[in-house]
Task: inverse folding
């Protein structure tokens, strides 16, 4: 609506803010048309122009009703306010009492009775929706300021909004999605760059606040920030950081949760799994780091001055970084979510983005309003996060299982044959392709009342298998201008390395000549896989799967 309106004065923003609600919304097209001269601006009485000119002849505000009742019918300020209240709260008895006063007062000022009747009728229909202009002005002013900031300082604005909602994980998730939509980079926490709240770094990316990590209090963040701002500068390693900060403010839990959230990822040569690796002596590497730093600080504080006045140099060997395997993506993200509440460095479903794009037609959010998807089949890609297997009173098994996709978490219940046929898929961290059908609810024969829609589970597969099961044909689109020998050789070598049973087709096109030619490969067949698609994307080929 604002794009169609093309506001030129602040009054336009105030009016649109007041109109954008149930009821007055029907006046918006007329408001816009009048603004641009596409619809005539008319007034029931010429005297009304003074108060309706700013809203192009449309009554929008309660204040307009009050001012016009005073001008047209001689109402006192008290009576005008009484009229506002009566109309806003639909006080029928009071309106019946005020109407004759309005008609008579208007007549006395020389206005025709039939016109006054029309004005009153219009007000009765609209005044219950009329908005308080002073409120709308405040809302419009804040909206104008924040819209300006979001447009011109997007990273700073979103960092502020995220900081303001830091303790509400649903809101943080919502605004992280908004950052993604805005193509704004949001980086995880980093001890060398993060503050307590969300901030913006030199690359204009939003940096996660350390205060958003569970178990990392303001004291721990304060000592980390304070010491990295000292003359010694940024921390070069986990050992150096532990030696420099106040370990009374940053305890073992703070260290562990910072590691899990990726706060130490900026230090080269270590990965998250190493911080929690136990060599068999019952102590993790991170515990050894904290113990080493405590010893170092104790030695420094109690070091004796030599006879020659020089402080003795404290030499305590650093613990060795243990060699161990990195955590898998799922394990890393699961632990990250435990301490932050959301996935920051990625999403478990990122490995299946092609399957999600090509072989899913729905999202878990669709299941929130089942009435909207009755008689529809949905295919949804998701990850199992929780399962509860139950047994009914008559001894039959059933389950409650919770799944997540990129945006939502949803709890399903499954019974009977469907449960027996599919229960082996209900394992936490399983990536599944869910095919459901939403049936109409049963109709009660006695009352005729229809029950809630029901979910029917048609099929469940592992997302790992979906490409093999569903991808039958790969189509590559090529601009005739790009057909170079090296490109053709690359395609030939790549398809040789990915031989399989799926059809291969080329579409060669020439934009200038507006020619498009389909060329199915008769002999060559390929194995469509994540690896093949990633190779094609890396070389910027346009492709389609069927």
Result:
């Amino acid at each position: 609506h604002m794009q169609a309106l093309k506001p030129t004065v602040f009054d336009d923003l105030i009016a649109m803010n007041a109109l954008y609600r149930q009821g007055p919304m029907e006046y918006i097209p007329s408001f816009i048309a009048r603004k641009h001269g596409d619809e005539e601006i008319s007034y029931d009485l010429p005297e009304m122009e003074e108060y309706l000119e700013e809203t192009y002849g449309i009554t929008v505000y309660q204040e307009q009703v009050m001012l016009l009742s005073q001008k047209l019918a001689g109402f006192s300020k008290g009576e005008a306010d009484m009229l506002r209240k009566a109309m806003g709260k639909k006080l029928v008895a009071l309106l019946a009492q005020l109407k004759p006063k309005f008609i008579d007062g208007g007549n006395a000022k020389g206005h025709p009775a039939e016109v006054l009747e029309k004005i009153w009728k219009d007000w009765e229909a609209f005044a219950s929706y009329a908005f308080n202009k002073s409120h709308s002005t405040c809302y419009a002013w804040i909206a104008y300021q924040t819209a300006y900031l979001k447009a011109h300082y997007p990273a700073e604005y979103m960092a502020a909004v995220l900081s303001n909602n830091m303790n509400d994980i649903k809101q943080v998730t919502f605004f992280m999605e908004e950052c993604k939509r805005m193509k704004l980079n949001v980086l995880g926490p980093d001890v060398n760059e993060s503050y307590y709240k969300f901030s913006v770094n030199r690359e204009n990316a939003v940096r996660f606040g350390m205060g958003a990590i569970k178990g990392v209090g303001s004291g721990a963040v304060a000592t980390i920030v304070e010491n990295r701002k000292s003359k010694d500068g940024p921390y070069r390693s986990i050992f150096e950081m532990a030696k420099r900060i106040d370990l009374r403010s940053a305890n073992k839990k703070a260290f562990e949760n910072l590691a899990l959230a990726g706060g130490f990822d900026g230090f080269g040569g270590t990965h998250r799994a190493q911080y929690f690796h136990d060599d068999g002596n019952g102590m993790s590497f991170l515990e050894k780091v904290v113990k080493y730093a405590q010893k170092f600080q104790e030695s420094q504080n109690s070091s004796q001055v030599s006879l020659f006045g020089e402080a003795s140099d404290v030499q305590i060997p650093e613990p060795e970084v243990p060699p161990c395997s990195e955590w898998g993506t799922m394990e890393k993200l699961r632990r990250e979510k435990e301490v932050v509440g959301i996935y920051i460095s990625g999403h478990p479903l990122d490995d299946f983005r092609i399957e999600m794009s090509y072989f899913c037609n729905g999202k878990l959010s669709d299941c929130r309003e089942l009435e909207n998807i009755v008689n529809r089949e949905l295919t949804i890609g998701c990850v199992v996060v929780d399962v509860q297997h139950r047994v009914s009173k008559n001894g039959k098994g059933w389950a409650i299982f919770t799944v997540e996709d990129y945006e939502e978490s949803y709890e399903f219940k499954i019974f009977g044959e469907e449960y027996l046929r599919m229960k082996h898929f209900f394992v936490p961290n399983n990536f599944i392709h869910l095919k459901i059908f939403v049936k109409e609810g049963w109709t009660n024969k006695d009352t005729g009342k229809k029950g809630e829609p029901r979910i029917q589970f048609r099929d469940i597969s592992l997302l790992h298998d979906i490409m093999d099961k569903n991808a039958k044909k790969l189509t590559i689109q090529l601009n005739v201008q790009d057909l170079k020998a090296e490109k053709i050789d690359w395609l030939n070598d790549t398809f040789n390395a990915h031989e399989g049973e799926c059809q291969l087709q080329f579409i060669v096109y020439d934009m200038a000549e507006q020619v498009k030619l389909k060329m199915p490969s008769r002999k060559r067949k390929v194995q469509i896989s994540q690896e093949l698609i990633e190779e094609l994307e890396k070389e910027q080929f346009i492709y389609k799967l069927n």
In short: The radius of gyration is 34 Å. Residues 292 and 318 are 7 Å apart (CA to CA). The first strand starts at residue 186 and ends at 187.
